[in-house]
Amino acid sequence: MKTVGIICEYNPLHNGHARQLHLARQTGGEPCAIVCLMSGNFVQRGLPAIYSKQVRAEAALRCGADLVLELPLTVTVSSAEGFASGGVSILSALGCDYLCFGTESEKLDALMQTARANLSPDFDALLRAELETGCSYPLARQRALTALGAGAGLDSPNDILAVEYCKALLRQESRMQPLPVRRTGSYHALALDPEAPSATALRAALETGDVAWRAAVPPAARDCYAQAVLHTWAAGERAVLARVRALGEEDFAALPFGSEGLWSKLMRSCRSCASTEEIIEATKSKRYTRTRIQRMLLCAYLGLRKIDLELSPPYVRILGFRDNGRSLLREWKGRFPLLHAGERPQGQPYYALERRASDLYTLFSRSLSVPVGTEESLRVIHLDGQGTGNQSGD
């Protein structure tokens, strides 16, 4: 049985994602299993996921995924390079045949050429030289790649991540074959296009109660979202502020992404600004992007240090599966440590990070009745061939 891996967030899953799942299955042929390695309760941009991992995992299964695994927390909150590298490493170890990802261009040859240029011994020196001129990091990177005769795929969000996936495949000498799928529509569009929605516009509609969101979501996922609890940064902002205002200098110095004194600048902003938006605006620069500062704030809130992100995750959690996914798990036994949702590993410090993150996620909830301490009570979602489901510990 061929397996197609997708590294995803589904924040939330929409019609564009459903199209990718359909095309991935077409390419993989029959029999084929779609394996989604999905971010948990937080996403790579340094924000809480709008719905919990259980809600998003069920939506993925109802829309075509056969197996949903949780991308470990320390991979999820990494840079784009770390996010891609960690995900590719896990899917490669499990033995997936293809890695499917979205692109704006769908020009695989150009993406691979850019990825090889990124891995060139000359790239770092060229990048540093461009940064010393005072230009922004994205522009410096583009100029360095252009000097190496490459640079395609770095002017749009999905292509930027696609290049990182290609880099990871090359660097790790993965046997997975890249499978790009063209993304239609605008990644950052504020108007909601039902056929090719941006996740940004969809989240805005959900947060404001605009029922137009229903047209942008596959019917199979609508019931998952209709009664689910929303989580937003705004709902948990005061909790974040309380946390960062209590941190000491050594805590800021230990944060990820704080090199070249950025941690010190962030610390000063946290001690003088009234909101997280003000903190980000006071700290970001041409060289240090808004997303990087957002991730630093999230890591500070969750108590994640640079050393935590440098460790390889010791296991991956199973969030849900269909029958094909269950068969795949039997076949993969022993290839990579897999734990069921809610399973408590013995002697694993990593579990403390997971539990803390799970409890702190609840503070981003718009509901005042979300309990804490539930990580151990989670159960794997199992959907049968007709799409009905149950939750069990098997």
What does this structure look like?
46% of the residues lie in helices and 13% in strands. With 394 residues, it is α/β, with parallel strands linked by helices. Among the domains are: 197 residues, 3-Layer(aba) Sandwich (Rossmann fold); 77 residues, no CATH class. Helix 13 packs antiparallel against helix 14. The two termini are 23 Å apart. The mean pLDDT is 92.
CATH architecture heading of the domain at 2-104 and 157-186 and 314-354 and 370-392: 3-Layer(aba) Sandwich
- Overall structural class, as computed from helix and strand content, comes to alpha/beta
Beta percentage is 5-15%
CATH topology of the domain at 2-104 and 157-186 and 314-354 and 370-392: Rossmann fold
Helix proportion: 40-55%
* Low-pLDDT segments, ≥5 res: none
Task: Please give the CATH class of the domain at 2-104 and 157-186 and 314-354 and 370-392.
Answer: Alpha Beta
The CATH homologous superfamily of the domain at 2-104 and 157-186 and 314-354 and 370-392 is called: HUPs
Please give the number of β-strands.
Answer: 11
For the sheet with most strands, the description reads:
9 strands, mixed
**What is the distance, rounded to the nearest whole angstrom, between the alpha carbons of the first and last residues?**
23 Å
Determine the mean pLDDT: 92
Query: What does the radius of gyration come to?
Result: 20 Å
Order of helices and strands: EHEEEHEHHEHHHHEHHHHHHHHEHEHEE
Secondary structure tally, helices: 18
